[in-house]
Amino acid sequence: MSIEIKEITTSRQLREYIYFPRSIYKDDSHWVPPLYSDEFDFHNPKRNSALQYSEGIRLMAYRSSQAVGRIMGIINKKYNDQHGEQTARFFQLDCINDPDVAHALIDEIEKWATLKGMNKVIGPYGFSDKDPQGLQIEGFAHLPVIATPTNPAYLQKLVEGEGYGKEIDCLSYQMPIPKSFPEMYSKIYERVCSNKKIKLIEFSSKQQLKPYIVPVFRLVNECYTPLFGFVPMSEEGMKRFAAQYLPILDPGFVKVIVDQQNDVVAFVVSMPDMSKGIQKAKGKLFPFGFLHILGSAKKTKQLDLLLGAVKSNFRGKGLTVMLGKSLMETASKCGLETMDSHLILETNSRMQAECENVGGKIYKRYRVYQKMI
């Protein structure tokens, strides 16, 4: 039976596009829906500044008038200009387990990219590394955490069947949260604490945390620029991310180190895992979804890392030990037992070593694919 591809052009079609995955994944116990309010913001140029400097196309696949797949094509002009590339991206690929449907969707993106003068397609990849990146290919026994991909295992075969090969892998480590730190780390911690040129700041309220959110993102811009796929955030973008995540952050799981001028030189942002709560809320915060999400965060035994960075001239001075020990102590007091590292590029040997030094093991793998066109 023939497959019809339609471009999304109306708000009604966009709604169908956003909610489509739940129609095919709702019976998959390991699928975690997105927070749909964030999804609508992602596709809204007034809420997502990346849409102002990127080209995009959204497509739906139909068979006998039944929706069977979706995909988004992206050309990030800013990133391409900065890196001298002609690269397009495919994103939000969701479809039934049918190679004909996958082919129809991906082929249409490749044709679109070729018409736009591109010579390569990577994906799944959004506007930047702050969007869920890659296709999960290992670790399906574990629920995905917030801001990471959630997809069925069969998508790997469908994508590879279209001639896509590995561009880069992202790794997730699972680490035990120790009740006490090894003596070596305790000594480093004591030495760093005696340094009067820096200060660890901990928070007990969102009001205390709020002034540090934008400075934290500025440090992200400084430290993450060399990383694959990273696009520096504008001041407007920083404020948008702050507004998006501040309401759900527990201030106790954010640690910041400042210098004598009170400038942020290192930080870590984490939160108790909310995946089961988001499942129960079916991706909706209101009217009662947020109660399921908050309840899940109180019951979980897992802490999820979201972001972390150390200013370049402060690296190798024990600041990660200071942040880590403080974070682990808070987590242990709250009864948390394990920690998810979030996504770490396979080329980031420094972060991998940090995880492995505290007993971390790779337990999920995500792959970004590429194909020359």
Structure description:
With 373 residues, this protein is an alpha+beta fold. It has two domains: 4-172, Aminopeptidase; 178-336, 3-Layer(aba) Sandwich (Aminopeptidase), CATH 3.40.630. Helix content is 36%, strand content 27%. Strand 9 (254-259) and strand 10 (264-272) form a beta hairpin. Helix 9 (275-281) packs antiparallel against helix 10. It is globular and about 70 Å long. The two termini are 27 Å apart. The mean pLDDT is 94.
| CATH fold-level assignment of the largest domain | Aminopeptidase
Count every helix, treating DSSP H or I runs of 4 or more residues as helices: 12
Distance between the termini: 27 Å
Rough shape? globular
The counted number of beta strands is 14
Strand proportion, as a percent range, falls in: 25-35%
> Oligomeric form of this entry?
single chain
CATH superfamily of the largest domain: Gcn5-related N-acetyltransferase (GNAT)
**SSE series:** EHHEEHEHEEHEHEHHEEHHEHEEHE
Largest sheet: 14 strands, mixed
CATH architecture of the largest domain: 3-Layer(aba) Sandwich
Stretches where pLDDT is under 50 for at least 5 consecutive residues are none
* The first-level CATH class name of the largest domain: Alpha Beta
Residues in helix, %: 25-40%
Radius of gyration: 21 Å
